């Protein structure tokens, strides 16, 4: 492959796909010197926001959570666009090339003129949790179906973690099951309240209240230290803040505590001490003006769909200036908390800055559908969660 004006994009998630689409439309298809190569292991666009509801077996949201990429890519001429199914295994920024481990086996060196890294993050919990895409679409879907089967058969379900994903999962399960007394739903988290600062105590207390209304059993100040299974029963070892240890049994265990950036292929000197890519306010990798990074793998902002959305939109606007060799606009990172948590399809809690967002607004903006009403359009790259493009 020639590197003359080759734009190489790593990733096909919520930040990457809009950048791919708009770069094709605004740059590549308008200039014979450009082509775009997309490298990703997945065959389908994965919409992670809907996963807390998709795992509930009776919701039948799989088709709006996993959306084929092929129809979108068929719009692009093959001489201008290539989709390489695989995963980056090493980056050599001095020679401007990425080595890709191919899904079909073997490897391929892909040279680039400009590199866009949007490879996201994965769930920290061992065993593979489909809150983010796993090694590929097939593994992610198989893990989802396994969890759905566990949940359908379970009398009790334990969710571990106190973050946004864990709380939403507990809320969805509580709405469907525990408020009606059909299954016991337990949330285990390592603090006195769900969530953590910068979420305010008011918001955290409201989350606790909403979960209690759904009859979710809350076990606070406690960590799951180990788990094992035998004959369909999962035994969890719990340790509380005082050091006391106990065991509980369940039929379904859903750990959701934190993310790890997918940066194993990056040279060590380009990563910070948390393994996130060192990212400038122009969304470039430190020391390399022809490498951009957006989304969960970058160091500039916390892992958050809103941040990935904003960074993608900024990069889409910045790339024409970059290729015209003009000064790039600075990206304004926002450290203020901004989130909405759906607690089932009828209630929610949110925060912007230090202000609590009313439940009805969270319901209207997120909780009704968890984005499944527009996820097919997201998969085409014609919009982000917050921005609709003209083309």
Automatic annotation (TrEMBL):
GO CC annotations, alphabetized: cytoplasm
Highest rank taxon of the organism: Eukaryota
UniProt keyword terms in alphabetical order: FAD, Flavoprotein, Oxidoreductase
Alphabetized GO MF terms: electron-transferring-flavoprotein dehydrogenase activity; flavin adenine dinucleotide binding
Pfam family membership, one: Pyr_redox_2
Residue span, FAD/NAD(P)-binding domain: 29-311
InterPro entries: FAD/NAD-bd_sf, FAD/NAD-binding_dom
Assigned protein family: Belongs to the FAD-dependent oxidoreductase family.
Protein's name in the database: FAD/NAD(P)-binding domain-containing protein
Organism: Clonostachys chloroleuca
């Amino acid at each position: 492959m020639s590197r003359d004006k080759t734009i190489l994009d790593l990733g096909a998630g919520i930040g990457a796909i809009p950048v791919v689409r708009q770069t094709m439309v605004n740059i590549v298809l308008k200039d014979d010197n450009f082509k775009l190569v997309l490298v990703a292991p997945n065959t389908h666009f994965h919409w992670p926001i809907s996963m807390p509801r998709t795992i509930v077996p009776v919701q039948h949201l799989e088709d709006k959570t996993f959306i084929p990429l092929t129809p979108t890519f068929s719009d692009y001429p093959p001489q201008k666009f290539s989709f390489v199914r695989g995963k980056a295994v090493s980056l050599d920024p001095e020679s401007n090339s990425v080595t890709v481990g191919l899904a079909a086996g073997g490897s391929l060196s892909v040279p680039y003129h400009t590199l866009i890294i949007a490879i996201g993050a994965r769930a920290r919990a061992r065993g593979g949790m489909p809150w983010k895409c796993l090694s590929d679409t097939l593994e992610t879907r198989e893990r989802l179906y396994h969890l759905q089967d566990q949940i359908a058969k379970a009398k009790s379900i334990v969710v571990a973690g106190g973050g946004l994903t864990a709380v939403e999962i507990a809320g969805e399960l509580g709405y469907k099951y525990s408020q009606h007394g059909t299954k016991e739903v337990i949330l285990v988290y390592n603090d006195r309240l769900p969530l953590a600062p910068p979420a305010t105590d008011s918001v955290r207390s409201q989350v606790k209240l909403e979960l209690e209304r759904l009859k979710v059993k809350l076990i606070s100040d406690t960590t799951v230290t180990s788990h094992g299974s035998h004959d369909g029963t999962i035994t969890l070892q719990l340790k509380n803040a005082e050091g006391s240890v106990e065991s509980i049994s369940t039929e379904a265990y859903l750990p959701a505590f934190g993310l790890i950036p997918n940066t194993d292929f990056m040279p060590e000197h380009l990563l910070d001490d948390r393994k996130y890519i060192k990212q400038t306010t122009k969304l470039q990798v430190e020391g390399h003006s022809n490498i951009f990074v957006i989304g969960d793998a970058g160091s500039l902002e916390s892992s958050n769909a809103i941040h990935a959305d904003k960074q993608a939109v900024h990069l889409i606007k910045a790339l024409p200036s970059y290729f015209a060799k003009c000064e790039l606009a600075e990206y304004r990172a926002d450290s203020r908390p901004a989130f909405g948590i759906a607690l089932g399809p009828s209630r929610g809690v949110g925060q912007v800055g230090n202000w609590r967002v009313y439940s009805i607004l969270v319901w209207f903006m997120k909780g009704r559908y968890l984005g499944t009403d527009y996820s097919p359009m997201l998969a085409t790259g014609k919009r982000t969660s917050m921005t609709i493009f003209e083309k």
